[in-house]
Design brief:
Blueprint (H helix, E strand, L loop, with lengths): L4 E5 L38 H4 L4 H7 L7 H9 L5 E2 L7 H7 L1 E2 L1 H14 L3 E16 L2 E13 L5 H5 L2 E3 L4 H4 L4 E4 L1 H18 L3 H14 L6 H11 L3 H12 L6 H20 L3 H6 L1 H8 L3 H13 L3 H14 L4 H13 L3 H14 L2 H16 L1
Parallel strand pairs: 2-3
Antiparallel strand pairs: 1-5, 4-5, 4-7, 5-6
Helix pairs in contact: 4-5, 8-9, 9-10, 10-11, 10-12, 11-12, 15-16, 16-17, 17-18, 18-19
Length: 380
């Protein structure tokens, strides 16, 4: 239910790094255009106008609402225009509206497009909540969280007193976390980084590189893109360039939750690179620090649970799956794992409960698989 992605490669990690002086690095030198062919299709890097463009169907929907009033739009989004959450898809406004599915960034972009066209005030918000984890194609995706707040008036204080927040998460799940307003440029940088991460998973490396450049051009202060760029360089075999980018990212001061995650993930990625090069002394410099960070990764416990399950130790598997759920109760595969373990232990009601939750949380392309397993559980 998060929106902007910070990524790092999966692998067994032994860790280390040496420091680098940021003052000695120009960020221009971190870009290596010669490694990537020019894009044949410029549509891979959508313009802001394309991202927020409205379709005739969207305009017809707005005609049913009074202009400048935010509550009818909120009610529409909660009913007829409701978007189903799918963490793997970052869509533009038109595609989100047409499919009624997408991730949090998709929901924010679509809502902003509708609000802007109908004269409704809005602001983008970064919520400094703990990151949400995902894993796709050998890559961890660590997602930050943004939402959008609407208002009917032009007075900024209305946002706090009478505005409405549009978010996949209920208000009680984000209450207490610091909220930071984002400009549209800052939001778009996160949007392009999302697309770059998705392109990287799909092995569309030229598109990923150009999307990261677009993110940097629109918001040079957006630091999360450096980790994505480092992973991309390593994927195309440019290890020296990847190392320079990781070291630059590591030296960025962790002034907030998101930046701290960037630093930690850059350390993980640099560690993978150093271990592949057998640079043991540098591994040891940060081993203790990163071992603690590794234990905050829910997939560490999930993978241990999977190993225990394959070995037939279902009680141990349950313990590991529970630890994974404690860190990331929103992951459908964790609920599926614990459902299997409960089934093996003969605890059928608990198995069905977690299978139902797996079905609820799964992306659209996996719901049928869980529906079939639920039916088998109930018939058995």
């Amino acid at each position: 239910m998060r929106t902007h992605l910070i990524i790092f490669l999966i692998g067994w990690m032994l860790f280390g790094c040496a420091s680098i002086d940021k003052a000695q690095i120009s960020t221009d030198s971190l870009w290596q255009d010669q490694l990537f062919e020019p894009l044949a299709n410029s549509a891979a890097v959508p313009t802001p106008a394309k991202i927020f463009a409205l379709t005739p169907a969207m305009r017809r929907a707005l005609q049913t609402m009074p202009r400048g009033q935010h509550r009818p739009l909120v009610e529409f989004l909660q009913q007829d225009g409701q978007v189903q959450y799918d963490s793997r898809l970052t869509r533009d406004a038109a595609a989100t509206f047409a499919s009624s599915s997408g991730n949090c960034m998709s929901l924010v972009v679509m809502t902003a497009a509708l609000a802007k066209a109908n004269g409704i005030g809005y602001r983008y918000q970064l919520v400094q909540a703990p990151p949400v984890w995902d894993r796709q194609g050998g890559v961890y995706l660590i997602n930050g969280h943004v939402n959008i707040r609407l208002q009917s008036g032009s007075d900024d204080t209305v946002f706090e007193r009478r505005g409405s927040t549009v978010d996949f998460l209920p208000g009680n799940q984000i209450r207490g976390y610091q909220i930071i307003s984002l400009s549209e440029s800052q939001l778009l940088a996160r949007y392009y980084n999302n697309l770059a991460a998705e392109a990287l998973v799909q092995r569309r490396y030229q598109a990923s590189y150009q999307l990261l450049k677009a993110a940097h051009q629109i918001d040079p202060q957006f630091v999360q893109l450096w980790n994505t760029l480092g992973v991309l360089y390593r994927r195309v075999g440019a290890e020296a360039q990847a190392e320079r980018v990781y070291r630059y990212a590591i030296e960025l001061a962790p002034t907030d939750v998101i930046r701290a995650n960037l630093v930690n993930n850059a350390l993980h990625n640099l560690a993978l690179l150093l271990s592949s090069q057998n640079r043991l002394q540098e591994w040891q410099q940060v081993h203790a620090r990163l071992e603690l960070n590794r234990l905050a990764n829910p997939y560490y416990y999930f993978d241990m649970g999977e190993a225990a399950y394959r070995g037939g130790d279902y009680q141990q598997a349950l313990r590991y799956y529970r630890r994974a759920l404690d860190l990331a109760e929103y992951r459908h595969e964790f609920h599926f794992g614990i459902s299997r373990a409960y089934f093996r232990n003969g605890q059928l009601s608990l198995s069905e409960r977690h299978m139902r939750q797996a079905h609820k949380l799964a992306p659209q392309n996996e719901k049928q698989r869980y529906q079939l397993k639920l039916a088998a559980l109930r018939s058995g």
